[in-house]
Every structure is written in structure tokens, then in C-alpha cells.
Fold this sequence. Notes:
The complex is a heterodimer of chains A (205) and B (82).
Chain A: H1 3-24, H2 32-46, H3 51-61, H4 82-111, E1 124-130, H5 136-147, E2 149-150, E3 155-156, H6 158-167, H7 176-189, H8 192-195
Antiparallel strand pairs in A: 2-3
Helix pairs in contact in A: 1-2, 2-3, 5-7
Chain B: H1 2-10, H2 13-18, H3 25-41, E1 42-49, H4 50-54, H5 64-68, E2 76-81
Amino acid sequence: MNYKDALKYGFFEMQIARDWYREITADVGMHVDLIKYWIRISALLVQPIIPHFSEHIWTSILGEPQSIQLARWPSPAEPIDRTILDSGAYIRATIKSVREAEGQFLKKITKSKGVAPFDPRKPKSIHIYVATDFPDWQVKTVQIVKDSYDAETQKVDDAKVRQALAQAGLMKDKRVMPFVQAMKVCLTNKLFSSCLNVSIPGPHR
Amino acid sequence: MSLFQARIAKFDLETATNRTLPFPEAPVLKELLPYLKRSVGYVDADVWPVDDARKHEGETGFSKNIIDSAEPASPAFEFRNV
């Protein structure tokens, strides 16, 4: 019944994970322990679909004394580390952003018939800027929304927000109101404290 | 705000609303540099904390508006032909 899912997660996604790992570590090389673990898990996951081949990997390559038919379904030896998964997602997202940013320049070149400040097809270099603090206007805006939030009714006093924003001279900034809206959406869905938290937790920085 | 929504898409909801990352960004990005050079084809690629980059403001390849656009969890990229 779930044959397709079994094949998808047990085989194809495993292949994709390996390809990505091989690609991203090409300069330093893959870790032998991780590769052995990967072979082991792969053999176990696809065993119901390709029993003979799995058996061959299990006994000949991994040198297991007993048949794979007697092996248990794998379970993680340690709890899953969300931080590592998150940093992996962050790396992929960053690569995507870089490629998209380059794509924007290519579009500009086509539009302007060859005149652009940067041509991704020519020899090029990149600076990546990393910020540890949020921009001042965001910190101020968050504080204003925080001050206008009524914990009892769980509502933000819009009039109060507008007044405070105008006082702080933030109303003219086009980025501010969409930001306030996004924060309000967040507040209706999530806990108050996590939405308005703009500080970076200490140990990570 | 699109950036905010993009962040929700990128990470799980909790990380997005927290507006913080559970790991330090700069070391992770530095690990990524060899791959970026090889796969996107940069002669040179480097990671700059915003504070350090500001000291070079005005020099070639360091634009104030790009440096200013970097946010936690959302680094900014400045390209140049060499």
C-alpha cells in the first residue's frame, strides 16, 4: 500500500541526501563513519523491496555475521539535534538566495542591453555580510507594538501604535507598517513573548 | 512583510517568529565558502560581520546600503567583478 512512500523515503531521498553531502564536502571529503552508517541504514530501509541485494550489502560489505532478515528496524542512537538540521536548512537557503541575487543581475543586463554594475558571467567575487543585531527601526517598532499590547484582551491597540510610530518619526518609513502587520499576524497565532523577541540569545553569539 | 514570510518558509515557524537562529551564522557561512566558490564560481568569497564591513565603507566592493540590509538570519550579498 505504501510502496511508493517506502521507495521515496527509503531509496530516492537517501540517494539525494548522499549526493548533497558528497557535493558540499568535496573539498574536505566525506566522513567514513557517516558513509558506513548511510550504507547500513539504506540497506535496512530498502530490504523489503530488494531483499537479495540488501542481504549482499549486509553480509558481504558490512560483514555482519547474521542475515539482514534478522536485523531490527534502525532507530537513532541519539536524540535528533534540531540545531544541526536548522543550520543545514540555513545553508541551502543561503545558496538559493545567492543564486537568486545573481539571477536578478542577469535580468537587469538583459533589460538594459548589457549595461549593469555587475555581470555574473564574468570573473567575480562576493562579500557576505552577517548582522548580529536587528536594524534600529525594527527594534523601535517592536518596542512600540509591545507597549501597545494588552495582555488581557490579547489585542494590539492600533491607534496607540500609530501615535507612537508618528512620534518616533517611523510612519514615513515604508517598511514599518508591513512589519507591524506581520508582527500582528504572528501575535494572533503565537505566544506574545516569542513574537516580540528581537534579541539574540547570549550563548550563540 | 515578504522577508518575514520568506523566513517562515525557510525555517520552521518557531524559528521564524523568534527572529533568531539557534546557531551562530558566521561560522556556518564560512564552512559554506569553498562550496560557493566551486559551484557558483567565485574567485574570492568572504564573510564579514557587519561591524567590520562598516570600517571599509566607501572602499570598492563595500556599499553602505548593502551592508545595512543584512539582518540576523538573513545575510546580505555584495557581488563584484574582478
